[in-house]
Amino acid sequence: MQISLTMRELSIVVGLALGAMYSSQASASNIEWIAGKTTVNNGDVVIYQSQCYQAQNSPGTWETPGPSSWFWNGVACSGITDPDPGPSPDPDPGPNPDPDPTTAIPWVPGQTTVKDGDIVIYGNTCYTAKNTPGKWESPSASSWFWDVTDCPTGSNPDPDPDPGPNPDPDPAPGEFTIIPDGNGGYLMPRSELTAYETSQTNTELFNWVRSDIETRDNVIVDAVAPMKSSNPENVQRAEMVVDEATWEFLFPLRNEQYTYTRFLQSIAKFPAFCRTYTDGRNSDDICRRSLATMFAHFVQETGANAPNWETSKGVPRWRQGLYYLREMYKDENVHDMTYSKCSGWQGERWPCAPSKSYFGRGAKQLSWNYNYGPFSEAMFGDKQVLLENPALVADTWLNLASAIFFYVYPQPPKPSMLHVIDGTWQPNAADKAAGIELGFGATIQIINGAFECNKGAEDFRAQNRIDYYQLIAKALSLDISGEKLGCANMKPFNTDGAGALMITWDKDWGYNANTPGNKSFMCKLVPYQYTFNALFQGDYEKCVEYHFNVQAIDESGQVIPDDK
């Protein structure tokens, strides 16, 4: 069966579900909240600044509790009449944690810490704190966290009467400089756009995923060959698990384009695949398990699946993988525009080339222009390479790299298959309620769960995958005892699960009293598929430019060309 899943394929979600390495911990008592360290499940009660809050919508380690937060509800502290959280979780509370009521605190973005009721001075205006603002909640007249107030006696409304040409060289995220360009559009400093993008995506989970999808230069990839001492470390580990003789044994009927060298080159492109783990996890075992998992799916997706060949060719079905290179009945010389979404945002961001069809090619059977474009960007830094030459996905090392690309990218609310196999993803209560556990079965749910899982009994396609996995694991000396292999009673991943992560930017329709037209001039993370991906640095800037007629400028005020 041909599938066209994508790393940008998202389901509608209602909230983030972030956690340290997807892990969770539960407690029957109030948990002391320490920003960046404490991990909770929905329903857990934490204590923070002498107040208690109940977790909802799966808060991450940096979602500090507050009365106005999407992630927390204020509750009574269970069993504690006078909660005392002990030493402050922030031992450096800023320049003046107990301010003189006759003066205002100078606000420094990212540094100043205040309590509700404190008065700060920022941009020659004074504000009273409310709703527990964080260090990055810079004061403004329209903010939920601040009220404009008169400056106290003794405060200097202009604490720096000669600030120089740029009194605020690094505005806090969300505080933007917006300059009319004289032609109906606007200019915004790239530094501010980048700072805000970083503030919204600088979480442990985002950083893990970014690490997973890093790629090496193609010069390094092209130099890879079997048994070369210069091969990258992850390639050498894969060679140790699957040498050329094993490759020949497992895939004796493969298309000639699926060479062992290309197999190694595809691994070289992605350093995270068969990487070395330094946190105690068994790197060799994870590599072996990753390869067995991927090979089992190869057999189902691109195998000959010919029972009679077990006798006529002496090759059992589990060793008939990688037989198909292109989707059945498709031809490079027939330009029928198959799998081409050339209109709407898909066509605008990933434009179809004339007389090209984006049917299934390679071990993953990559399909659709909106999958070829992102894959091309990941491989070449240029979406046009594969949009204009889709046949490269069949006739080069990309025929196997496309499968690893799919393996390492998450499809929220699904985690990546890599995170399932290496244990980065740990099922939380919502996942367990859906019957989703660590093991091969979860990877079936990721790759084709809508058709093969949650049927009460194993679908024949899922059973094929299980059978292939068991036989390949045996051939690779992999112990899979105790692993959940099937998905017959496994519901889909959902937005409360540990794998839910919003990775798409779209227009923020919010109101800002201090901007032209009172528009937000911002984009926000959203739970659906769209053209701008938060995993790709710079897509935030593209989103703002697209929706608000903005051009980014550099430090000298010059407009930055679109291709820079």
Compact summary:
The chain is built from 18 helices and 14 strands. The protein is 29% helix and 9% strand.
**Gap between N and C termini:** 41 Å
* CATH topology-level fold name of the domain at 344-408: Endochitinase, domain 2
Strand segment count: 14
- Give the uncertain stretches in residue-range form: 1-29, 79-100, 157-173
Question: Can you give the mean pLDDT?
Answer: 83
State the shape.
globular
3D structure, described in words:
The chain is an alpha+beta fold and 564 residues long. It has a domain at 344-408: Endochitinase, domain 2. The chain contains 18 helices and 14 strands. The strands form four sheets. A four-stranded mixed β-sheet has the order 1-2-3-4, with no helix packed on it. Strands 5-6-7-8 form a four-stranded mixed β-sheet, with no helix packed on it. Helix 16 (440-452) runs antiparallel to helix 17. 44% of the residues are buried. Residues 1-29, 79-100 and 157-173 have low confidence and may be disordered.
